[in-house]
Amino acid sequence: MLRLLNIEIHKLKYNKASRVLILIYFLLLTSIALIAAIKFDIGPVKFHLAEQGIFNFPYIWHFNTYMAAIFKFFLLLVIVSMMANEYSNKTLKQNLIDGLSKKEFILSKFYAVILLAAISTLFVFTVSILLGYWYSDFNEFSIVTTDLEYLLAFFVKLAGFFSFGLFLGILVKRSAFAVGAMLVWAMIEGFAKGLLYWKLEDSVDKIMRFFPLEAMANLIKEPFTRLSAVKTVAKQVGEDLSKDFSVQFLNVIIVLLWTALFIYFSYTLLKKRDL
User: What is the arithmetic mean of pLDDT over 58-73?
Assistant: First the structure.
């Protein structure tokens, strides 16, 4: 495992585009902290976003993982360009000539996916801990460690998304086309959801949760309507925003199954392809 992972780390280390994209990604993750600086002072109306409780434990785990997941497309570019470079630079063929099996090649890519997802999760954990202890009104250990399952959901979400990107990178061999294919698939899921609303409105969520991108989206639901200030405003206008925001075990299983399938499809495709 370490040998295969070292191969991928070496390739990323000497790829300037990948280094830049990874740097931008982690800078964007750090920028979540800048949300605390958002203030509006308009006459008697004074609004400080950090004072609305977004950095309170345990809510911060939900908020930060949701916001951080938005930036995952930067690492998707790293994954697909990593595969595109294997074909354009002929390093894939050279690796196989040097004795690396196709199974080991796919595993090396998968280990890189897991490493990027793990580092991202650790980074979000660190940023959240620092922001939480600085701004949160609740610092008891039992409260701080509540809702940590959002970090697990974040890790699973990234691993699944990057595995999908890896499969598309192998399928189409070009990074731009792979990203385009991801967008096309997102539109297909959107069209399917609209069609289901038209034909089977009561069963939409039950069916759509098994689609890959929808399953990943369901891992961490939007956190904004969970804020007490938003709920108060909603009640005043007669809206009920109550829903289950928790990480659902079934959604985790579905994404893990899709991750395994994407890696298997990647291996099958590479195995059958004449390089």
Answer: 92
Does residue 176 surpass a pLDDT of 60?
yes
When divided into structural domains, the chain yields a total of 1
Helix (H, G, I), strand (E, B) or coil at 127: helix
Position 113 scores a pLDDT of 93
Give the 3-state DSSP-derived string for the chain, with helices as H, strands as E and coil as C.
CHHHHHHHHHHHHCCHHHHHHHHHHHHHHHHHHHHHHCEEEECCEEEEHHHHCCCCCCHHHHHHHHHHHCCHHHHHHHHHHHHHHHHHCCHHHHHHHCCCCHHHHHHHHHHHHHHHHHHHHHHHHHHHHHHHHHHCCCCCHHHHCCCCHHHHHHHHHHHHHHHHHHHHHHHHCCHHHHHHHHHHHHHHHHHHHHHHHHHCHHHHHHHHCCCHHHHHHHHCCCCHHHCHHHHHHHHHCCCCCCCCCCCCHHHHHHHHHHHHHHHHHHHHHHHHCCC
Residue 144 belongs to domain spanning: 2-272
Single pTM value for the model: 0.90
Q: Which pLDDT value is given to residue 238? A: 59
pLDDT higher than threshold 60 for residue 40: no
